[in-house]
Model the fold of this input.
Amino acid sequence: MNLHKRYGETIAVDGVSFQVERNEIVGLLGPNGAGKTTIINMVLGILEPTAGTIHIEGVDIATHRGQALERTNFTAVYAPLPGNLTVYQNLRFFGLLYGVRNLAERIDEVLQQFDIARFRHTKCGVLSSGEQTRAGLAKAMLNQPHLLLLDEPTASLDPASARDIRAGICEFAGQEAVGVLWTSHNMVEVEKVCNRVLFLSHGKILLEGDPKTLPREYGKETLEDLFITVADEPLTLEGNGA
Amino acid sequence: MMRLSRIAAILLRQFYLIRGSPARLLPLFVWAGVDIVLWGFITRFLNAINPSGLNFIPTLLGAVLLWDFFTRVMYGVTTTFLEDVWSRNFLNLFATPLSISEYLGGLVISSIATSSIGLAVMLVLAIVAFGLSFFVYGLLLIPFLLVLFMSGIALGILACALVLRYGPAAEWFVWPIPAVLSPFAAVFYPLSTLPKWMQYFSYALPPSHVFESMRSILAGGSASGINLLWGLSLALLYILLAGWYFTRIYRHAIRTGLIARYSAETAS
Done:
């Protein structure tokens, strides 16, 4: 709530407040440098806010970090699993860190779920981009998180792989009653999977709403048009809307 | 509260890496073994040309073995930490519920395992090939090893903190640290050999108290209990200070975003 992050004179996040409910997929959108990854890093506890608080299921991450992160997980294209371990070894390592019960069974489940059982004993470093993304997602869902953070999970994937990955995430989110915070630059994808979107610009939430209706509320044809306006002319949107 | 499963995770990861890579397995004992062989022959040669009959094996070879053990302990901690640097794993690692004390606990236990392998190889070589007998040190060998182990742990944690603070390139400061300290630690000569200003540093180094005690025993005297207790206390203090410093650097990295941006390109 009311998150701020400042690096010297640069304000990266400026008074952002939002909630992600269970069974909800929230898109965190905005141009490069808008503050999306900064927010995700703060929620993950690897970046301390300059001001503001973060509660995960009512637990303050600043004071009860371990407890808050036990049921949180993430995957990001810039944080691949260590390439010098096999998929199984990585899942076992992270499963122990997250305190996953019945770990062997859970590993089998996520390997099946993301169709990477055949890469069980393959080092992550030699997997293709799509396979690495699947392995990252398997890690992200290993502890059956209640809050899942996905930073551009389908970036660098071909359309068919991206579609499969999206389906896998949506299936998981539907089954496990998980809240998902999803960043993406693919507006078609966002419109398909997100129940709600937050548009960030210069560290502030500029717009919020249903991705299917939000563009029309601001006189735009598509979510992509709205995104471009947010990126190019954010001032024209401030205080407008239905 | 510390969770053993998280400490076990760090150990298991290191086990997987060592098992799957001869490049990681061999350094655990090869360099230590080479040192023992080299110094074993040097001491044998010195014994042959020395008319006084002084046996160099316990003084020189014993010192080499103990110093190598200290070095292996330090490298055991830093290498486990550097695996996370090399694989750019900080983001994944520190976004888990793992606490700093659990992480450091994992590094220390991992070091116990890896340095024990090195120590075992050195002992076998030194005893079997060169006739080094540890009976000459008596039970004091235990506090000797304990002080050196604790010093290695403290220095290893300090080195990890430096790499975390100054980026992956700071790894190259880490490897020469034992070599830089060795003249001050008076491994091969009495502390009195050093100029006065160097002796002040030496007194602050726990290993120097071990080597002074070792030489005192070999010269027919007895080790000073106060000296060893001082070494032990210093080593304990340094572990606490190193842990505090690492935690401080970690918090700095969390505050400044260094953890989130840590990679070869960004941190350097």
Notes: Residues 123 and 169 of chain A are 23 Å apart (CA to CA).
